[in-house]
Amino acid sequence: MTTSELSGKPAEIAGTPAGTPSLPLSDAVQEALAITKRGVDELLIESEFAQKLARSEQTGKPLRIKLGLDPTAPDLHVGHTVVLNKMRQLQDLGHQVIFLIGDFTSMIGDPSGRNVTRPPLTREQVEANAMTYFRQASLVLDAERTEIRYNSEWSDPLGARGMIELASRYTVARMMERDDFTKRYKSGTPISVHEFLYPLMQGYDSVALKADLELGGTDQKFNLLVGRELQKDYGQEPQCILTMPLLEGLDGVEKMSKSKNNYIGITEPANTMFGKLMSISDVMMWRYFDLLSFRSIGEIATLKAEVEAGKNPRDVKVALAKEITARFHSAQAADDALADFVNRSKGGIPDDVPEMLLAGAPIGVAHLLKQTGLCASTSEAMRMVDQGGVRIDGVVISDKALMLDPGTFVLQVGKRKFMRVTLGTA
């Protein structure tokens, strides 16, 4: 898409002209539609997407499926893979998936769901984060069948004139329909003009890529709709929109986030990943099955029926933890992680314990736990001792005043925090 194309519409609208009779939906198309709808929050407009699928089947031309991610942080967690899993399903159905790295838009800063302006990233930060993004996404997507694009390809050449012409295609009133903008305006919280450009630029990405379907989280719905409207304005057939739920973190309440420390990183060690998955509640387990598992709907329904009939939920959770761990590591790593988890549950010490050298013996147990980082403070350490959550070499400690002499031993706090400490004198 060039700057000159901003000034006018193509002579013909791409896609199915208005009034064209609806295509019949074959069994294969209906199955593809069911796969697409699994676990989604919304599919807009479903009837339009069904026709896109039918036309794709008839012509043999794959649909163009777009997912844009701003490289605001260098690492992905399994919450990010909810939408990546859906992309993989669509990829396996034979469609062209486009992994769009928002190197341009990330320097604006996405205001979605925020009540303050997000500081834009520098070019250096964006490039550093983008280096690891696709490598990690390729743990879910088939890299060889994925089209990788950067939105600076068409956004940088726009220039000031093109940006002004693009901005003329959307009104302030429509921007203010966005919930977070409305709340900030009513509360007197500043809204910078450049924040209005973000949904416009994301929408323009869909125009440049001629997207048939765009995916995103539920918090991206407004931005996705802007893309649909801009495509109409440029004479393209509008994209359909698929929003995926935001996965709750390990606490089962807040959405998964590194800042909330309730996440499972997709590059974490297998033992850590397995243990975190086993820590989710029996109720939340089914949410993770629906959004993360590649098992069929029928298989998951069978597992639910077995649990309702008396099967131990822990056994089903093990199956989930093994599936996810194997996806990002290997089947052998998942088996080893299960063995490690069983060993820990029996009070055993895992093989991959981090090590630390410290001086200062003799030292109180609470101060040592703080120095090792196993507890954030001495008061937290004392609480953990009171609760029976501290072990030394596998033995539960109950004395908060315990002094430790020089030596090497394994500290454990809770079920998953371990440290092998070699303690010397001051």
TrEMBL record:
HAMAP family: Tyr_tRNA_synth_type2 (MF_02007). It is found in: Cytoplasm. GO terms for molecular function: ATP binding; RNA binding; tyrosine-tRNA ligase activity. Residues 1-22 are annotated as: Disordered. Catalyzes the attachment of tyrosine to tRNA(Tyr) in a two-step reaction: tyrosine is first activated by ATP to form Tyr-AMP and then transferred to the acceptor end of tRNA(Tyr). It comes from Massilia horti. It catalyses: tRNA(Tyr) + L-tyrosine + ATP = L-tyrosyl-tRNA(Tyr) + AMP + diphosphate + H(+). GO terms for biological process: tyrosyl-tRNA aminoacylation. Belongs to the class-I aminoacyl-tRNA synthetase family. TyrS type 2 subfamily. Keywords: Aminoacyl-tRNA synthetase, ATP-binding, Cytoplasm, Ligase, Nucleotide-binding, Protein biosynthesis, RNA-binding. The gene is tyrS. It comes from the Bacteria. A motif ('HIGH' region) lies at residues 71-80. A motif ('KMSKS' region) lies at residues 255-259. ATP binds at residue 258. The lineage of its organism: Bacteria, Pseudomonadati, Pseudomonadota, Betaproteobacteria, Burkholderiales. Its EC number is 6.1.1.1. Transmembrane segments: none annotated. Homodimer. This is Tyrosine--tRNA ligase.
